[in-house]
Amino acid sequence: MVCVREIDPLVRKICELHDKISKLENLSPSKEVDSSSRSSPNRLAFVGSGPLLLTSIILATYHLKSAIFHNYDIDRSANSVAEKLVSLNPDLSERMVFHTKDIMGTNSDELRQYEVVFLAALVGMESDEKVRVIEHLSVNMADGAILVVRSAKGARAFPYPVMGPDCLRGYEVLSVYHATDDVINSVVVARKCREFSGENINQGFDILSAR
């Protein structure tokens, strides 16, 4: 019972943080973000969803109430826990799809299905690794699709890599929001450019090596 009393406040705090992230000012309707889509997305992917997948749950419950969420994680046990969690809600269990695989193993046939792709903060803990994932997505996502990336600024960059516009080759950055409260991550919203190809994919790493 002691453990339960200690965990409950932690769970509530985590839920509050994810709810704050989903309500960030720069994720609210704006001219720049609205211009990227004429309607709410129907199919979204969350890369690195984890066992709690709270961002997917909050967005599906309060913001995108008819959308299908495809949750990707390389950890089978994490997906197993997540599936059990959403099974408690009939609506969510119908709209949550789980993929146990490395996102680097996906191709354009799969990724072009999604209108929005969320990239979790813990996917690629080193800058070059995260850039590699972003460039794989940029080659394979549909033209005009939206990528939402967690980033960081200042002292908050200690545990997480900073993902600025120079790291988002193949995308047009629409909005950047840096949190000032107890939310650690910043959020970058970008749109896949229509004329990008994978011919010079290594150019992104030239930026990093020049820093």
From TrEMBL:
Catalytic activity: 3 S-adenosyl-L-methionine = nicotianamine + 3 S-methyl-5'-thioadenosine + 3 H(+)
EC number of this enzyme: 2.5.1.43
Pfam family, one: NAS
PROSITE patterns the UniProt entry points to: NAS
Biological function: Synthesizes nicotianamine, a polyamine which serves as a sensor for the physiological iron status within the plant, and/or might be involved in the transport of iron.
Enzyme class (EC, first level): transferase
GO biological process, one term: nicotianamine biosynthetic process
GO molecular function: nicotianamine synthase activity
Keywords from the UniProt entry: S-adenosyl-L-methionine, Transferase
Protein name per Swiss-Prot or TrEMBL: Nicotianamine synthase
Protein family (similarity comment): Belongs to the nicotianamine synthase (NAS)-like family.
